Amino acid sequence: MSPLPTTIPELVRTRIRAAVRRPARLTPEEAEARVLLLRMCSLLLQYPDAELAAARPVLTATVEALPPSPAAEHLAGFVAWFVGQDLESLERHYVEMFDLRRKSSLYLTYYLHGDTRRRGMALLTLNQRYRAAGWETDGGELPDHLPVVLEFAALAGPGGGEAPLRQHRRGLELIHRALTDSDSPYRHVLAALLTLLPPPTEADRAAVDQLVAEGPPNEEVGLDPYGTYGEGEFAPPGAFVPPAPAEPTRVPPAPTSRTEGPR
After folding, report:
1. CA-CA-CA-CA torsion for 10, 12, 13, 16, nearest 10 degrees?
2. How far apart (Å, rounded) are the C-alpha atoms in residues 193 and 74?
3. 218 DSSP β-pair partners
4. Are the beta carbons of 206 and 196 closer than 8 angstroms?
């Protein structure tokens, strides 16, 4: 698109740009396919337990039935690898990629806020968004866990439902880059997801480069009311880690009302 003339007022120029970036309204068929893509991404990014491994024939058939799209091609690439691995290999690779490496962790608010007080507030805000939409998580994961965010996006729709994904676009880019650098097949799932979001801006790319070089913000605080685990790593699914208790306040004893004179 050619640059807008400088004679156009800034307010109009801004609104025109916003309209250009706004996604087109989806047909019912496109909306249904988008929901299925989001749910497939959510499912494939969950821990590969025995139940998920047993569902591989269903996953393959579902991906093959998707309408042709770049996202569907990426998911097909992942599923082709996924169905050929034994359960132990799947579990080991998942833990290595998502539990042991911070640059490919699936907890999105970490990339935006790091281990700071703002992250605790972001988690609370995300939970409030879910509840306002009438959706309650099962409590097994933090609300910023990517499969949880994807499921909410599928249920609530492209507007408010996908807002958390757009907000954490830079974190998603970093996860995709880290998985690509590790040559992990999970890069295909992130690539599929990114095709559903608006393209990154130059500012997004610069911010991702800065995240790679410097890491997220850091601060020696807990994530009240979610707590911390070990030496700052994320708690495993289903674990509730209460925040560390504060030091007791020591108050000197109050003087007695009886005054003793000299003996």
Report:
1. 160
2. 9
3. 115
4. no
Q: Following CA atoms 225, 226, 230, 234 in sequence, which dihedral angle do they give, to the nearest 10 degrees?
A: -150
CATH number of 27-214: 1.10.3480.10
Q: Which helix (H) or strand (E) holds 119?
A: helix 117-132
Closest CA to 104 of 192, 186, 195: 186
Task: Quote the tokens at residue 155.
Answer: 């249920």
Q: Which residues fall within 8 angstroms of residue 42, CB to CB, at 6 or more apart? A: 146, 147, 148, 150, 151, 154
The token duo for 203 is 């500012």
- Determine the Cα–Cα distance for residues 57 and 40; give it in Å rounded to an integer: 14
Nearest CA among 85, 63, 102, 120 for reference residue 233: 102
Q: Report the alpha-carbon distance of residue 126 to residue 70 in Å, rounded.
A: 29
Q: What would the pLDDT profile of 142-165 be if each residue is shown by its tens digit?
A: 999 999 999 999 999 888 899 999
- The better pLDDT of the pair 55, 230 is held by 55
Residue indicated by tokens 């650098």:
181
pLDDT in tens, 183-203: 999 999 999 999 999 999 999
Nearest to 41 by CA among 156, 183, 146: 146
Phi, psi of 45 (to 5 degrees): -95, 5
The pTM score is 0.74
For residues 205 and 197, give the distance between their C-alpha atoms in angstroms, rounded to a whole number. Answer: 14
At 166-188, the pLDDT tens digits run 999 999 999 999 999 999 999 99
